[in-house]
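Students often ask why we bother encoding 3D structure as a string. The short answer is that it lets us treat folding as translation between two languages. Here is a chain of 382 residues written in the first language.
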Amino acid sequence: MSPDGEPVARAVLAWVPLVGHLYHFVLLINVTSALGYSETILGRVRASLLVVFTLVTAWLGWLTWNAPWWTWTWPTWSYAVACVISGLVIGPLGSLRLAVRKTPKGIMGTSSRHHATDAAPRERYRGPGAGRRWLALPGNQSLELRLREWEVAFTNLPHALDGLRILQISDTHFSTGYTRDYFDWVMDHCQDQPADLVVLTGDVVEDQATIGWIEPVLGRLEARLGKFAILGNHDHEHGASAIAAAIKNSGYHMLEGQWLTLNLDGQTLAIGGTSAPWGPLFAHEDVPEADFRLLLCHTPDLFPRAPAWGVDFMLSGHNHGGQIRLPLVGPIFMPSRYSRRFDRGFFRKGQTLMYASEGLGGKHPVRYGCVPEVAWFTLGRA
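And here it is in the second language, the structure alphabet:
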């Protein structure tokens, strides 16, 4: 190789394993974030992983630039090969899989997009808390809203549930980074359309100072057959009992590790809920006999277990669609033991259909390529 070409070749050899090393770091962050630990413990884990990542990155870069690969020790050489495979094959294939994944059959949808800043200046929605600085970022889509309308067909849907309409709201993450005005603006849109069921799928509160928002905001919603809710991992960090009490006072049935059954014209709809692994998980024998089962599950990670419970429709949140979705790459950080697999939208396994919501808020209210959403589902017979 000519002397002029050698620096270029070394630069290429340095970047390929480093991209794969970054993939490994992201994978570890994603998986450890889904194991049920508290945010305090996870913060320490993430900090430790960042230190290790930085040191190994520096080591790999120095080694690739200064020493021929055939002089490396076999553990270093083996890890570098794993990084190359991850950087050139596994990571890109994962992004491609997300890009080409199709909505399962029997589902049709429409959506409309709205901007809170069309109704009032941005400053009206920025609170005094730390999150206000995120809301000021150029292009941040956290003050937008996508209203989704889904028609979902089930082959086994009881006649009594034909046309049943469900409104799902997930991951509001009430915090003082916002003012309450943004969430009131969202509820204005939600009240425009009727629902038979309203469901909350967790992470209602991010800041204990906003627990008082629950009743005046979420209590505004009405549903013909009832309102149902579960908690999320962030709720367990910020006063779960007080949050649950406020949700109950807003007219919702709390379904933490529980099921209940509704009788509709002689046919039964069972509704269950769990925020496991942070909250209680029901036992398999606790799943009731029913003509149709709806499960509220904060994390999509329990989806592979849902068919064994006889669940027909599962509604989740937690992953927020990644909040930041890069062109071609897709989402990066996602708190799931399956990493980016259940990022957003519909997934089917056997008889079970799941929808993973992109949610409304986030611990850090910053969104690019991932607009906050609420969704209505109208059930029909296939």
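Translate back mentally: The two ends are 64 Å apart (CA to CA). Keep this in mind for the problem set.
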